[in-house]
Amino acid sequence: MATVRMIDIAVNFTDSMFKGIYNGKQYHMGDIQAVLKRAWSAGVERIIGKNRVVEGSGSEAGGSFIIPRYTKLDFPRFNGQEDPLGWLNICEHFFRHQQTLKEEKVGLASFHLEGNAQLWFLQLETDLPQLSWDDFKRHCNLRFGPPIRSQKLGELAKLCQIGSVADYQETFEQLISRAGTLTQSQKIELYINGGLTDYIAIEVELHNPPDLSTAMSLSRLYERKEQPFVCKC
Fold first, then answer.
1. The dihedral of CA 53, 57, 63, 68: what is its sign?
2. 169-184 confidence digits (pLDDT tens)
3. Of all helices (H) and strands (E), which one includes residue 66?
4. Which pLDDT score, from 0 to 100, does residue 189 have?
5. Domain named Retrotransposon gag: which ranges (predicted)?
6. What is the rounded CA–CA span in Å between residue 176 and residue 40?
7. Helices 184-195 & 151-158, crossing angle to 10 degrees?
8. What digits encode the pLDDT tens for the residues 67-102?
9. Which of 193, 200, 197, 190 is nearest to 221 (CA)?
10. Concatenated DSSP letters for 144-209?
11. What DSSP character marks residue 128?
12. Sequence-separated (6 or more) residues with CB below 8 Å from residue 141
């Protein structure tokens, strides 16, 4: 109510001021500036206050558009030097939280391309001017992703632990992200019996882990257990 009252005061004051000037009355400039400044602050507060409603951005609601909650998220950048799967996944999260319209996704993502990725997009946009977000993701994966996704399952089956469990896990996660749809039990089976060293694999399997994260945690635990005890005294 204070905001509405302040605006009303400013409107009335301005109206009276112009009438007074018309009738030859004089006003101190400081008084005018003070009232208008307070009215302006109150008006801005009212516009961007609780509802955060403006026209032309965010998602539509009753003829206006609502500014999303997460307005300070940084959009990720991509230069074409790494697998785009992670970048595309972060883009999806950003779009979901920012309530980005589907027709704006490609444009927003393209502003954050660098180097070879930017040059690639310039050509892609020329060839496909009506590019959808799904088409963008598909072409991005074809251009910058690993050769053929279906081969990753075969690589997973052949993967063996050579160094530490952490190294094995990192490679396993890179491959499984592109291996297609697998059930939780299939992932666990591939992780334990596919390449873990025999001692660790047996110990982890005895616990019958319910998910891949638990299996990975147990494998790190038994790796530490297998390492020789060093007295720290």
1. negative
2. 988 888 887 776 778 8
3. strand 64-66
4. 87
5. 108-194
6. 56
7. 40
8. 555 455 678 899 998 888 889 989 988 888 888 999
9. 200
10. HS-S-TTHHHHHHHH----S-HHHHHHHHHHHHTTS----HHHHHHHHHHHHS-HHHHHHHHHT--
11. -
12. 84, 85, 88, 149
